Amino acid sequence: MNHATKTSQLPTIDEIRAAVKRISPEAHRTPILSSSYFNERLGARLFFKCENFQKIGAFKIRGGLNAVRSLSEEEKSRGVVTHSSGNHAQAISLAGRICGVQVTIVMPNNAPQVKKNAVRDYGGQIVECEPNEPARIAAAEAISQDTGATLIHSYNDPRIIAGQGTTALELLEDLNETPDIVMTPVGGGGLLSGTGISVKALSPQTKVVGGEPEMADDAKRSLEAGRIIPVENPQTIADGLKMSLGTLTFAAIHKNVSQIITCSEQSIIDTMKLVWERMKIIIEPSSAVPLAALLEGNLDVRGKTVAIILSGGNVDLNKLPW
Amino acid sequence: MNHATKTSQLPTIDEIRAAVKRISPEAHRTPILSSSYFNERLGARLFFKCENFQKIGAFKIRGGLNAVRSLSEEEKSRGVVTHSSGNHAQAISLAGRICGVQVTIVMPNNAPQVKKNAVRDYGGQIVECEPNEPARIAAAEAISQDTGATLIHSYNDPRIIAGQGTTALELLEDLNETPDIVMTPVGGGGLLSGTGISVKALSPQTKVVGGEPEMADDAKRSLEAGRIIPVENPQTIADGLKMSLGTLTFAAIHKNVSQIITCSEQSIIDTMKLVWERMKIIIEPSSAVPLAALLEGNLDVRGKTVAIILSGGNVDLNKLPW
For residues B244 and B223, what is the distance between their CA atoms, to the nearest angstrom? Predict the structure, then answer.
């Protein structure tokens, strides 16, 4: 399937507006914070959209709730299934509970107990599989085939992308100025894809830039090569950013994103700690990546207005990386 | 001096309104957050005024800026002096820098280097003394005598109390409902005193309640006894709450505060961690005290609307208490 075909499957801004209506009863309209410390360090005006304050502690509830609530009554009665060990698992589980839909989550058998508990607390049912990507996909597809449950991929799905796109929609509505640049972290690319669609529809002159760990820089390499170059088992502390782009997210990013900039593992840790110290907010490593790439000097933002989506704040406080 | 005399020295609501004008060019109007988790646990509607997001990471800049900016030009030319090893030291130092006033801070010679550095970064000059209360007071008074610098006590000063009172003024203006209860931590009592004056002027039916560590419960005992009962060298993790009430703050609390409730050291740590985990914001131990006392069940707030001032977020991330 070529890019044009995939592009036609991407959600439009109207579908993102419809997603706003679907998610707004439960999802928070998160605040935007600023920091004179980071403004001074970068010589720029930065605004941080705080999805760490979102329900479940991450933007993922937006896509999850939009996807589950988009289903027909008949589809809802058959349940949903997904594979994830991260924030998407909690998002779909909570969305299922809110919408009265049965949820099955395929998780690697070595997933941390705390993540399993979070899913179970929301009423999700866990099916364990071998800890590798093919096993996860196979298990989820088998469940979907057997039970008729709808498979909701964590990013390569137009309903998920539309839900994540609501973050930037709110950001642009709530900011009192037009940003020169909007940045998000990029893993599988759901957030960056939805952000690109919203930004290009509402503020075409604004550039959309992704931030990615050097150790998992498949999106950067894919965008530069003009084709998907997956990354295999990347080692990064930003555990939300280990996935490779999918066909849909590649098409969306190829169409709307100007550039992807990267940062080192040490920068991620240092920046995360600096945000905690200076802004008094808790962000997870993935959230620190765009700012870390700016602090490394990998994009000149002097004099610019830059809005950064802080994607989440789910961190084990007993295992901090410093 | 009796209570009536001291009460006449307390700032009025008009003086707190004047303080708003003095501090607003630099101090943040901090946001108010809520948490469905804590609402459900307590069966109440809680609102948190986030002074951890304030400049210098604590409400103390309000009092510091109000006090320094209140001085005459002649007084400003002679500088200011105070004794503090905590947030007040940074507040006066930054206020001095903003107003072009020379600042001397008396600090115990065992104060952590990070606190000394923070003062020096703002341009404050440090004079060291023996690490005890009489030595601090004597050193600061000697400097004031020698140089003509104005001594600004960290809480027992009407200008400081008026500045701290701006927090509750903003809180009541920004909340869309009338709280049944407003809570703050209490150490020396500057914040609780200013809060009481603002709340009783703007919303007389609202109760004002203090939260205090069991291990430093001088304010509770003083309020119950009707006279100041100081605490000596208390051992609590809430290092912002070790001071005893002063004559002015006792008079203010005696007049306007309904009750002081306490909590254990373990509750402070547990509550602090829970706020980090659930609200994704960083608060210091002192800030956790009112909520910790509620979670211990020491005041029945079921069905009530309770506003809590989170006083600050200055924590050494390398030395967490869990």
Answer: 12
Distance CA A66, CA B97 (A): 50
- pLDDT (tens digit per residue) in A73-127: 999 999 999 999 889 999 999 999 999 999 999 999 988 888 899 899 999 999 9
Q: Does B304 touch chain A (CB under 8 A)?
A: no
For residue A281, the chain B residues in CB contact (below 8 A) are 280-282
Query: Between A and B, how many CB-CB pairs are < 8 A?
Result: 40
Tell me which residue of B255, B251, B233 sits closest to B242, measured CA to CA.
Answer: B233
Q: Which helix (H) or strand (E) holds A77?
A: helix A73-78
Angle among Cα B175, A280, A172 to the nearest 5 degrees reads: 65
Residue A113 CA from chain centroid, whole number: 23
CA distances from A212 to A37, A287, A314 (A): 23, 10, 18
* CA distance to partner chain B, nearest, from residue A319 (Å): 10
- Tell me what ipTM this predicted complex has: 0.94
What is d(CA A145, CA A139) in angstroms, rounded to the nearest whole number?
A: 10
Rounded to whole angstroms, how far apart are CA atoms B270 and A98? 29
Contact between A213 and A236 (Cβ < 8 Å): yes
CA B252-B31-B97 angle, 5° bins: 70
B311 is annotated as an active-site residue: yes
Model's pTM, two decimal places?
0.95
Instruction: Let me know: does A196 contact A260? Beta carbons within 8 Å.
Output: no
Q: Which domains does chain A have, with CATH numbers?
A: 3-58+157-310 (3.40.50.1100), 61-151 (3.40.50.1100)
| Beta-sheet pairing, B32-33 with B45-50 | antiparallel
- Token pair for residue A306? 């830059």
Q: Which amino acid is at A222?
A: S
Q: Would strands A150-151 and B32-33 be described as parallel, antiparallel, or unpaired?
A: unpaired
Write out pLDDT tens, residues A301-313: 999 999 999 999 9
What are the residues facing B211 on neighbouring strands? B185, B261
Among the listed residues B81, B142, B85, the one whose alpha carbon sits nearest the alpha carbon of residue B108: B85
Tokens coding B145: 């005598």
- H/E segment holding residue B97: helix B87-99
Handedness of CA B291, B295, B296, B302 (dihedral sign): positive
What is chain A's Cα-based Rg? 18
The yes-or-no answer on residue A287 being catalytic is no
Distance between CA atoms of residues A17 and B14, nearest Å: 47
